[in-house]
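Troubleshooting log. The previous structure file for this entry was overwritten by mistake, so regenerating from the original sequence record. Sequence copied from the archived sheet and checked twice against the printout by T.R.
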Amino acid sequence: MKAALVLVLLWLPGLAAAAVPPPAPQTWPIDPARSQAQFSVRKFWLAHERGTFPQLQGTLRRIDTAIDADLVEVDATLDVNGLRMDDPDHRARVLGPDFFDAARFPWVRFDSDPFPLRVLATGGTVHGMLTLHGERHPMTLTLRPSDCPRQPLACVIRAHGSISRSTFGMHAWRGVISNRVELDLHISLGDRP
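Regenerated output below.
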């Protein structure tokens, strides 16, 4: 009888803990009206060809783990057809099958690995996977230190990275533009839902 009472007493706290729902994860949407991605590629090794993808979308999420409660991850997506360039002919070529092939691959997506929330304030690296032109490969972004380190989620998050076009199956125009593409992202977060 005593053993049964001990088991019940041990079991009750676990039952009470199981009845309490886990806290909702914290999420912050990327504000598409105030966020964008820009790319730059060297043309004829002299000038740069530039383009902007407005309305970057996605989410920053806090991850609760047993290891570290201050980890976050981000997913970001952009619409390739939203590309803006100064020259409409260049835009048409870039969206065509030799470069982005927007008809077949209308989205670019980045999914980060978990990283410390403090990196948004101090700057640092964020690793993840980039899906582009039907290919998915690792990519590293470098976050710049925040202009408001005490409230980094309230300021623009600036990130830089570079990719190799050929890694993502874009081999056209080798003699015209470089293989290396520079990326700059300006991300503003909206209010939590």
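Residues 4-10 have pLDDT under 50 and may be disordered. Archived copy saved in two places this time.
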